[in-house]
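Fold Annotation — chain and its backbone

Fields — amino acid sequence, structure tokens

___
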Amino acid sequence: MEGDKYWQQFLDETATFNNIVLGHLLPSSWWVTLPHFLQTWLRNYMGGTLLYFISGFLWCFYIYYLKHNVYVPKDAIPSNRAMLLQIYVAMKAMPWYTLLPTVSEYMIENGWTKCYTSVSEVGWFAYIMYMAIYLVIVEFGIYWMHRELHDIKPLYKHLHATHHIYNKQNTLSPFAGLAFHPLDGILQAVPHVIALFLVPIHFRSHIGLLFLEAVWTANIHDCIHANLWPIMGAGYHTIHHTTYKHNYGHYTIWMDWMLGTLRDPEDDSCQKVQKVH
């Protein structure tokens, strides 16, 4: 009974999230009669879509208009047509992408994972340590998932090639961040869910990190090299889109550095200067 009471806390929390998001976006008659699982999926779908458009539009407005020619040369700005195509691909996949956090919440609500509801259950030191381990697992998993999507030719041809049509600076934009084949996008986010079974993780932190992916992927497709070592920023990821065999990592360069797949944008810049001279 105590266990049932504990897992009920997760159910109550997700129901609260559903009420907050759906209650502000839709008439109650449209969603209150839906089963809890479908309410959660609808909340994730609408939240993910809003996050994609808000982050994409704000970032494009800033770098292409407010800072026109400061960060991105005029001839490297993607066309409106290219960005609309990226939005179209992302929107086709969004209903499927948002199934993943919905399923992970279902597993958490049923007590199948190591999730906990409050930091007070473990303390701040343990929270930080568990979060660090969780992020290492995610970094390791996404690196290998991404690399195999390149190395296993049928996976590349039928899944990952959808994303790699954006292979030049003037075809990459923040809207390309979620322009994947649906299964490709899900596979690259699956390490977030696998980690739930391996390390205790705070529930809201897990959900927050999953949705942070939308913001992070927008950032790493803007082609602007921020040079914040050891962050795997857009400078590194632009090289990935042009060479197809470097910089598979997600948040950091560590996996690529350890496994010999790292290519530094600074080295690329030096080589270009040498060729000019």
User: Anything to note?
Assistant: The chain has one domain: 1-275.
